[in-house]
Fold this protein.
Amino acid sequence: MSHLKNDRFIRALLKQPVDQTPVWMMRQAGRYLPEYKATRAKAGDFLTLCKTPELATEVTIQPLDRYPLDAAILFSDILTIPDAMNLGLYFSEGEGPKFSNPIKSQADVDKLFVPDMTEELGYVMAAVNMIHRELDGRVPLIGFTGSPWTLATYMVEGGSSKDFGKVKGMMYDQPKMMHQILDVLAKTIIQYLNAQIEHGAEAVMIFDTWGGALSTRDYKDFSLNYMQQIVEGLNREKDGKKIPVIMFTKGGSQWLEAQADIGVDALGLDWTIDIGEARKRVGDKVALQGNMDPCVLYSTPERIREEVATILKSYGNGTGHVFNLGHGIHQHIDPENAGAFINAVHELSEPYHSK
């Protein structure tokens, strides 16, 4: 493994001292950047961009060439796994992801299988490999996956959903069937993340985008329980270095204590909770990642600095904070404002890390 020239992100996740609070942005390789749009046009469509390692590498590195970010995140999609299970993923213009073969019956569930990481998902590993080589230790590379519950919502709904009627209907009416889906997904994700680690990911993140749609009891049974199984199945060390694990349930801050107990190194926070309060609640158990509302980036550099200062102050002194947005950066945000955000984090955080 190449030696990391900037390991601030890894150190903060492991609650080791840092000189400045590290920062990266969810969806940092994305449509707000003109250079991303150019590569996306060259690819022709989104899935080709994901499935062509050279292009995935190019867009992963674009934001790092523009900003002094402290981490790179693999450019891919959470739906690579259901796609590899033959559910027929496609993207319709302006409508987001759709599946031509969603899960409707027990027969569909029985057909699910753990895809081969070198065959069906080989293109993801090729991208991880290539990005890791290109980065050459500049910053750590984050690998990622969707959570079992989040992937199941797309697989049963057949695409995005506002009310989750089909997937929750199945969960309440046929819980055994739902657990069978989640079980195959958890087994797959363990292999998927371990393969990413093997190919060069230096940290991994589980995105539980739709966990917040569940009741407390159902969150624990149908989401958190499976994420815990995944965390327990991961290789947490490679070449003598620790591989930190971050878990993020959007809309899930009411369950922070339970999340901190599953063995992850860090929890992602959305913007609906005060980070200082979150820190009090989890104590020294985990690091925290977040949590500025992405919409602050629609304002001015001055206002962005104020917001950064507020969040840093709320978190307080010491390590264990990775600055991020509370969700992905929006496509219509001015790249200059993203730059102002990143610079503000580095500059304003220094006093919180003085010896």
